[in-house]
Amino acid sequence: MTKFLEECDMEKLSKVLYQIGINEVGELYRDIPEEVLLKGELNLPEPLEEMDLENYIYSVLEKNRTQGEFLVFLGGGLPPHYVPATVDTITSRSEFYTAYTPYQPEISQGMLQALFEYQSMICDLTGMDVANSSMYDWATAVAEAIRMAIRVKGNKKILVGANVGPERKKVIRTYLEPLDMEMVEVKYLQDSGRLDLSDLEEKAEDACCLYIENPNFFGVLEKEASKVSEIVHAKGGLFVVGADPISLALVKSPSEYGADIVVGEGQILGGGLNFGGPALGIFACKSDPSLVRQIPGRIIGMTTDLANTQRAFTMVLQTREQHIRREHATSNICSNEALMAVGALTYLALLGSKGLRKLALETYNKAHYASKVLSELKEVNAPYFSGEFFQEFAINFKNKRLEEVIKGLVAKKIVPGIMLESDFPELKNTLLSCFTEVHKEADIDIFVKALKEVIS
Question: What pLDDT does residue 262 have?
Answer without folding.
Answer: 98
